[in-house]
Amino acid sequence: MTSASAADPKRWWALAVIALAQLMVILDGTIVNIALPSAQRALGMPDADRQWVITAYTLAFGGLLLLGGRIADLVGRKRAFVIGLAGFAVASALGGAAAGPGTLFAARAMQGAFAAVLAPSALSLLTTTFTDPRERARAFGVYGALAGGGSGAGLLVGGLLTEYLDWRWCLYVNVPVALAALIGAQVFLRDRSGRRGGHLDVPGVLLGSGGLVALVYGFSEAGPRGWTSPWVFGPLMAGVTLLAAFVWWQNRAAGPLLPLRIFRDRSRAAAFATMGLATIGMFGVFLFLTYYFQAVLGYPPVRTGLAFLPVSVGIVIGATQIAARLLPRTAPHTLMASGMVLAAAGMVLLSRLTVHAQYVPHVLPGLLLVGLGMGLTFMPVYATATVGVPTQDTGAASAALTTVQQIGASLGTVLLNTIATGATSRYSHAHDPAPSGTALAEGMVHGFSVAYWCSAGVLLLAALVAALTVRRGKPSHVRSEPSA
């Protein structure tokens, strides 16, 4: 079989470069979490402001992804990839050297902005580099493993760097990684130049990016302020309004920021929906288990990071050894639905944890099932959502998929945290109005249990969506849409 990807002897080295850059972006979403207490002490950061170390990154990343994807389509995916890498390295160095909270917040926002250019260009480069169905499955298996497992690995790396070096290395570590990827990009990446005569949809940028920033900000503030706060309700309503106007404008714009033709394919639209539901249901597990390991079981940071390793191992096995091998001859909806059912089963096992649970018999089985389920799901979702996209739209489609993942993670974390907090409060009032010690831990674990059951329900809904709406043909049979 002759294919475009087979003609490029450097394509597997190109995959290594793309994977390295993608891993850096995913790691940075969680690597600073464990380092945050140390950074707060070192910089004299008030408690009310510490969340901006996380929020500044997620706001810029989630809000600018659509713009970053269209930039990749216009200027060229390789050029956008290089710009994103270089900017991310500079922002990381600036953050590592920060002498005060303001500099650190600005550096984190810069990281998010350049990540919004880097992530969609990486995924679109992968899409255009690997076109043979079997090679595509292997490449997306690696990508799916990194996308799903990077968050858990970030917790481990952050714990190691914070405990044995310094919290600043959680940012400095990106510099050599980015430099290595920059060298590899110049040697191994191949891409066509950007679309000639194209122009940026400025109204679409303002409406789309503004709406996404407002949504992400509203979700991030819902935890500390509550859903009824005007600082939450206002941004959420503004975000919904701006995004509705964005969709209206994309139907009329001559060169839309996000061509809506991308969503006309039923399987692709279903893959986007599956990704959104999967991230809503899954990403709360990292938050709850971090508190469970440290506050209930008394684990130190490094042991907490190591405790998450089975999730990453499960994702790698599920994506690269199972899904990548089965996808060329198996309908993608089968893998997606099976993965979501496995992950839901893992959540049910985690819902049975107690304050006296032991890691190997009680925690480990649930983590492995969640990891395998994520790997089985994310890999075919990425492959299905990007197959058949017109070449000039690959950046926009990649950005849209990453945006769905980011919004789902933000929404899921806030919703599940709200559910867990409410359940903990009700449990404490019902069992001990003035809880202390073990009673506090029991209330916390009860709240986590309720949230895990809710996660299981969302994941089963994702399985249903995938099973009923993704086409039953194999990925190689999904028809390409004509270029517009």
Features:
globular; single chain; disordered N terminus; disordered C terminus; mainly alpha; 76% helix; 484 residues
Please characterize this protein's 3D structure:
- The structure is a single chain.
- By secondary structure, the protein is mainly alpha-helical.
- The protein has 18 helices and no strands.
Arithmetic mean pLDDT = 84
Main sheet properties: none
The H-and-E topology, N to C, reads as: HHHHHHHHHHHHHHHHHH
Helix content: over 70%
Structural class: mainly alpha
**Alpha carbon gyration radius:** 22 Å
Number of strands: 0
The low-pLDDT segments are: 1-6, 475-484
Compact overview of the structure:
By secondary structure, the chain is an all-alpha fold.
Explain the layout of strands and helices.
Layout: H1 11-28, H2 36-43, H3 52-75, H4 77-96, H5 101-129, H6 133-164, H7 169-172, H8 174-188, H9 202-225, H10 230-250, H11 266-282, H12 284-296, H13 301-307, H14 309-326, H15 332-350, H16 359-386, H17 394-431, H18 438-469
